[in-house]
Amino acid sequence: MVNPTGLNGTDNGVFPPDKELKKILHDFQRRSLSLALRLRYLQEHHNIKIGKTKLKELNKKFSVPSARKFKAVEEATSAIAEIIARDVNQGQGPDTVKKIASLRLNLTIPRDFVRDTMKGLVGQTPSEMRRPGRRKGPKKRSALDAIGVFQEIHVDGHEKLGEKALRMGPGIGIDTYGMRDHVGKVLWLVAIPNSRLSDTIGHVFLDMVSKYKAISIQVTFDGGSELGWLASFQTTLREIFAPELTAEEWKPVLAVQSSINVPIESTWSYDRQFNGRTLRDILEEGRVHLIPGDLIHRNLFRWLWPKIVQISLDEFVDYFNNKKTRKQSARILPSGVAPNVVFDMPEDYGLENLAIPVTQEAIDALRSLIDTPREEAFRWVSDDFDALAMLVYNRVGSPKIEALTGWAIFNTMAPLIREHVEVHNLYEALAC
What we know:
- The chain is of the alpha/beta class.
- The chain has four domains: 18-64; 69-129; 148-295 and 310-377, Nucleotidyltransferase, domain 5 (2-Layer Sandwich), CATH 3.30.420; 383-430, no CATH class.
- The protein contains 17 helices and nine strands.
- The strands form three sheets. Strands 4-3-2-6-7 form a five-stranded mixed sheet, sandwiched between helices.
- α10 links the parallel β6 (218-221) and β7 (253-255).
- The radius of gyration is 24 Å and the shape is globular.
């Protein structure tokens, strides 16, 4: 008998509009999730319960790319060449290049094609370029262990792109600050004017807490006066929202040597492998473009390059959290799976979600205690210069902001800003 309703008798949930569903499915592909994981995410995060056959139909309907039906040979070859060109030290393997192509360029490329193309372009296989002895190996460490996500967050500042590291003049440098869950996910990476100021780091910590609406049981850092507000806020929030936890059982904050603060310290090396070393090389090209002590050059650097660095940090976080880790039999924590997946589904890997929920009202109340307003703590240039630079940026056609074209944009904007400042006597706009 014909079923006039066309329904199969199973409640598949409520499907979102096609435009939204297409975006969800393409994001799954971009993150290189398996079909099984895509079905899990659809059911648990979007209340859609379907099988593999239906998912394949939807992928076909919305033209979701697949490595098995790879045809874009020329486009992929060009993309791989561009990624290799950005990697000054040639340390990225085919898995990394494949993931970068997926996350940054939305290209799904088979691994074998990536490997063969890299060999054709460079003249060596990726494994030959990374053979033992080419660089020093990592220190041997004991395996990390944890009960669950949000058990411990590791925090640290990074100054490899800072003023003292670049040595290109006063005010020419960009610090970064990072926070990573002990289980693996990078929670927060941000470019800031100064990673040694307690007020700034206090705002950074509250920004992270505001995003997740939760704190961890413990925050681990390697000391420093800049952590005054962070330690105070973590302790206060835990006392309010998890009073059952005692300091004897779980310390709210823990200061350790930097060599022991492994998860966040290792993050910086992963970032350098992804784009940090390349980014520093590009920044240091500014020695031939930037006049030390010139206020217009100083302000334009601080207006433009923090944006470029933040874009690079965001790309790295997206890449790192969605890349499957190498399968390690000796590792206690999950391996062979992307950090985002473990973080979203900890129970599948024998872990708990130990996040301590907090309210936005409490976050706002603590933020009000900081003497320096958030806007001021993150200020790179004055409001007047920001408005002037944006005016000139729009005037030159609003070119795409990225590292490879950063100095070209700088050289295009600098004379126009100088002309505007001199004609209208706007030197006060350079004060920050």
